[in-house]
Amino acid sequence: MTGRVGADDLALLVLGLPFASFLLLALVRPLRRSAPAAAVVSIAAIALAFVGAYLTLQWSVHRAAAVNPSTTWSWIPADGGPMATVGVMVDELSMLMLLLVTLVSLLVQVYSWAYLADEPRSSLGRYYAYHSLFAFSMLGLVLSPTFLQMFIFWELVGLCSYLLIGFWYDRPAAARAAVKAFWITKLGDLGFVAGIVMLWSVTGTFDFWTLFTMGSMGTLPVEALPPIMFLIYLGAVGKSAQFPLHVWLPDAMEGPTPVSALIHAATMVTAGVFLVTRAFPLFRFAPDVLTLMAWVGAFTALLAASMACVEGDIKRVLAYSTISQLGYMMAAAGAGSPEAGFLHLLTHGVFKALLFLGAGVVIHVFHTNDLFRMGGLRGQPVVWLPFVVATLALAGVPPLPGFFTKEAILAGMLEVHRWGPFTLLAVTAFLTAFYMFRVVFLTFFGRPHHSGPAHHHVPWLMHAVCWALAALTLARGLQVAFFSGHHAGEGPDWLPAFSLTLAGAGILLAWAMYQRALVDPARVAAVLRPIDWMARRRYGLDALFAGLYRAILLGFARLIGWIDRYLVDGVLNALSAWTLRAGDRLRRLQSGQPQDYVYGVAFGALLLFVLAQWRLR
Amino acid sequence: MPLGAYLTLAALVFAIGLFGVLTRRNAVGILLGIELMLNAVNINLVAFARFHADLAGILFTLFTISITVAEVAVGLAIVIVIFRVRRTVEADHLDLLRG
Asked: pTM of the predicted model, to two decimals?
């Protein structure tokens, strides 16, 4: 039992370190104003947290599965037990996630140190304060033993995302993207909060372990669960950028590239998948919601992949690929194999962070996001090798980890005979390989598009981080390939060859189109004209949301504004105007003539007299 | 003579005084009207004292007369001051309190 106590304490420490760093940076002004000190504080805190997370994982792996893994303290006291508790939940799921979050946060913060070196010092301090807050929020979300605590950190994470997307708040596009991300994810969060409140009203608890125990004991009100789980799923749809709420993620690329790597690729957007994985024992009772999840996930994957194929901005391509991979993970959960989705989440977190950071290097070199103005980096493997490793991982080429996790998801689909989502995901796998290698060929191996010595020097720190991530990706892939037996028994025999063929075909097509120019991209676009036309317009979804926003939200705001201006203010204005006018009329009574007053007195006295006489009679 | 006769006289004097206060435009005339009204009250007091055989009424009248004198003195002084300042004692022109 000593190990158990230690693991919980350590988890709390891991949670506390980034928060302490955030408090320090937020409250101590000189520290925040001086960029190196702020960076050192933040990086030291997250590095210690990473070590702590690693130790916690080591200490907690041998725990028996039947033991309640959460340590809680009562928070909202009420008659008959506390209404809500807070605490930490130390199980394998949260520990792996803890490790991923601290690892990627650490590397991204180190990378930012070089990437944002040109920023003003004070705003860099702000940047690191936000980063620490984000790490704290994400760790809190991961460790949450109750729905309520998870919701609180869920919202904090959303806030950090908003702050970091709008880090360059003087750019209108960034400010707009930040607001858009906030609004759209809030749309899903509405469902989430309604769901957990409804769940509480039927079960009386927010606690995961209690709920799971109730589920396995059969004391859960099963018939009430499907609508509740649907609402909770809505929260995941918003956060994990599932169709139709995915529109915020590409715009979120307005933030600094390291932020995109950390928040909008590796960690925060996976919160939805994490939620579904965490609450899967409850989702099991809502098979319709799972079916929906599988279809929506697969459809999101395909939709985002098709948009990635026509996108010209390197970061946006990566954003669409993130949406696509999130669709994969959600589809896996929907097909009843959340552990496959979760494994994909872990490996994807590492190599997608690498892709973004590599894109950051490329952007640093070319000073543009436009794919068609890059090229000619063949002679610099230090730049392209890590990126290509990550691309191969994403495309699903063994022995890189993306291959195995993607295959596990497809196998999970086949196991429950969901042929529809399986087909969508298979097409997506082909498209993924295609659009990722389109990026690779256009960025690194094409002809150089600019003249002169425009190749900017890239700090070694950025390369170091990229190489570290590439090594991690490779190591993870080799580990899965040789030590875990790569889930051999799960899928049919033809599946590895099938997915490898898909990836190979995608790579080959990209090579033929963008490297060798054997196939003209314009001709392909002409053949697939309707899809191309739609994808370039993002299927009208952004326009739809913008239209809805303008029509409904702004219309409503305008209506409220009108009511406030003309009804609320109008009543007050009319009252005061009437008071003024009445006073103006009434003051004419005061003639200033003493005799008029005497008339008044005499008349009044007479009246009283008459009244008294009349009464007496 | 019965009490009613005295009371009728007092009422008449009061009415004449009120009429004067209301209709005179001159401030001095208004003061005179007020005097008449006060004296009508005095008549009432004395009449009741007499018919009820109660000295209190007569005593009260003495007070009233002395207060009336003081009032006339103050009132006339005010009229004189008004005349000095505004060069008129016409009540119509004295409307500083008009709203």
From this structure: 0.76
